[in-house]
Specification:
Shape: globular
Distance between the termini: 40 Å
Number of helices: 0
Structural class: mainly beta
Helix content: under 10%
Strand content: over 45%
CATH class of the largest domain: Mainly Beta
CATH superfamily of the largest domain: predicted glycosyltransferase like domains
CATH topology of the largest domain: Thrombin, subunit H
Order of helices and strands: EEEEEEEE
Number of domains: 2
Oligomer: single chain
Number of strands: 8
Radius of gyration: 16 Å
CATH architecture of the largest domain: Beta Barrel
């Protein structure tokens, strides 16, 4: 039997109940799709680091990563989609270039960007 779980929509920040199964239903309030398009499972982590974005040093926090992608949070406007940057972290050993595949303001002046690692 599938369990009913409380979900929080990342788009409208409203809570809704849904049966947890392989198919993830859209948000009841705004229709945002909760389908995970990631190729591999993500490892949740919070590591601070500095990135060079358009010759501006930005303090960022790595929120999660996998072999093919990473999500960072930072103060400032969302980075342009398709922008690239070097992501170099001794721990957990990430030294790769990333291309922004999505970017959005989350809360006030805080933004998050998802990168495809190459």
């Amino acid at each position: 039997m599938d369990a009913i779980k409380l979900n929080l929509c990342p788009e409208c920040n409203r809570a809704f109940f849904a049966i947890q199964a392989e198919f993830r239903p859209p948000c009841n309030h705004c229709g945002y799709s909760l389908i995970d398009h990631r190729l591999e499972p993500r490892i949740n982590i919070d590591i601070g680091f500095t990135v060079n974005a358009k010759n501006e040093m930005i303090y960022s926090i790595l929120r999660d990563y996998s072999d093919s992608g990473a999500r960072i949070a930072y103060e400032g406007k969302p980075l342009p989609v398709n922008s690239t940057m070097d992501i170099n972290l001794e721990e957990p050993g990430i030294h790769r270039q990333g291309r922004a595949v999505w970017s959005k303001a989350i809360n006030g002046s805080i933004s998050q960007t998802g990168f495809k690692l190459t």
